[in-house]
Amino acid sequence: MAKKEPLVRYCRFWVDGRTYSGKIRDNSVDIVEGDPFTGFSPIRLSYPIDRVKFLPPFMPKKIWCVGRNYLGHVKELNNEVPKEPLIFMKSVSAIIGANDFIRIPEWAGRIDYEGELAVIIGKAGHNIKEEDAFDYVLGYSIMNDVTARELQNSDGQWTRAKSFDTFAPFGPAVLITDKMPEEAVISTTLNGKTVQEASFSQMIFPIPRLISHISRFATLEPGDVIASGTPQGVGPMKVGDLVEVNIEGIGSLRNICAN
Ligand code: MG
User: Fold this and answer.
1) I need a labelling partner for 53 at 20 to 30 A (CA). Which of 83, 96, 157, 185 fits?
2) Which value, in Å, is the radius of gyration of the alpha carbons in the chain?
3) Domain count of the chain?
4) Which domain holds residue 48?
5) Are residues 158 and 225 in the same domain?
6) pLDDT by residue (tens digit) across 168-224?
7) Helical residues (DSSP H) of the chain, grouped into ranges
8) C-beta neighbour count of 98 within 10 angstroms
């Protein structure tokens, strides 16, 4: 029987003063030419994984975010269950990569982590039907939707609270596949202690619904990212904390808080 090829985990990385595109294997990263949006081909050169510095896998065109998409999280912040997906945006200027520092502003009150599955759109679409939604997905990555919680509450509009520089850690890889297994688990650890853990089957509005909903009012474009909401267990971070968001099959997005 032919061995099934593992799914590709595409990344961008820095090594010896240069940046490359790559494909992550167990303990090494193979260089590739190109990118998953236009196609890539392998180069016969690889680096041990512990020698490379991961960069954001690409610069998103837009970051669509979904608020209150897991029941446990809706309840922990005493909110009401939304009747339809609650959509807001986060500025792409907030993007950083794995192992970059999240800068904690001294004046902005409580700053929370929010571990989330990031859906990567690979094909343009408008008015997408739920049953066709996965045709528009290039793959999946990880985003930490870092939030200035007190400003979110006092502002009403969420743009400022969600878009401080460094508040969008993204990566380290894009898993190239149209569907994530519903039972796959997302977890967040703070200084090694598990603080969030859920499977994607717990989303109030599943991924096809999110894609369909957004595409009714805005054309989705290749390079758009949908941060699909955070599960129960959000909490504050302080300078010196290590926050790590893990998704089975994709990897671990690890960042340290600094000021
Ligand atoms: Mg969020």
Assistant:
1) 185
2) 18
3) 2
4) 9-55
5) yes
6) 999 999 999 999 999 999 999 999 999 999 999 999 999 999 999 999 999 999 999
7) 71-76, 149-155, 159-162, 207-217
8) 24
